[in-house]
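Working notes for the structural subgroup meeting. M.R. asked for a predicted model of this chain before we commit to crystallization trials. I am recording the input and output together here so anyone reviewing the notebook later can reproduce the run.

Input as submitted:
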Amino acid sequence: MIKSVVLKFANYVGESGLYRSLCPGRVPVFMLHRVSDTGEVRLPGGMTADVLRSHLDYLATHGYQVLSMADLQAMLERDKPLPSKSVMFTIDDGFFDHHDVAARVFEEFGFVLNFFVITGFLDRDLWPWDDHVAYALHRAGPKKADIRLPSGVNYLVDLLKDGIGDTVFELRSRLKKESQSHLYNWLKVELYPSLDVEFPAEIPPEFKPMSWSNARALRDSGHGVFPHTCSHRILSALTIEEKRSEIEGSIKRIEAELNYVPEVFAYPTGRLTDYDRLDIEQLDKSGIQMAFTTVPEYVQAGQNWYELPRFSLPCSSDDFRQIVNGFEAFKMKLRELAKFPH
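Returned structure, recorded in token form:
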């Protein structure tokens, strides 16, 4: 309760521009995943259209600039402090609600949204492995099961002890540390049978992708559409040949379907451990000029263009406002000063 009151007061102060003046040149890039127009969130990483609309309304009524990807790239090329009263939005993977719901909310305000799409998903060759994990565990027959991980190590699933939410999170986290070369085959031959769940013959409705026609319509409307690999497997967990295939393959699919050569990329899951030097080198060779992580920090001039950070878009209006008004930047600055006092 006290923390909430303090945050509301800090945000009130933040509307004066104080924190942005103390921490200039910082632009938050926000990341979304799913947007629902039903008034409730049923999938992890989701947000309702009404919450999203309220965030954008705040930006519109308080004079913020919502940047396109080209805007951000042009600003970074000047290598000067970025305009602090600006933000940018991205949305990952390429689900149908990205086109049907999220884009329409942004268009109500005349704002641009940048889409990072899994090209194999839009091709309907697959759907994201982490959603497979959630889908299978939510339908598990046995509440306890021994699962052999891709490495051959046994992993105990105990839904009675750990609960469904924690189990999904923990198994996903464990799989991020495994080799992902044959991950999609492992889902079919190991995970689903171990949980006594039938492997879906088609992509379930709640996980269906947008179409390439949708992606072209988004580009025609002024939004950005960029590659997010072919299969959403973690690049650092793949061989050199697989890394190249994931990066180059997704770039070529975008080029073929949308008739332009993309220069921007987002790493699957995007933590510092999810990509490596070889991935950055391959992106550079493939013509990519900017790549985004999921490290929750502000974009600033002088950063490595292949490691641009993003904040997850909060559902809470107070949490959202403390990022855009610079209070979060001010707190980060205080933490840095505490680590390295003069």
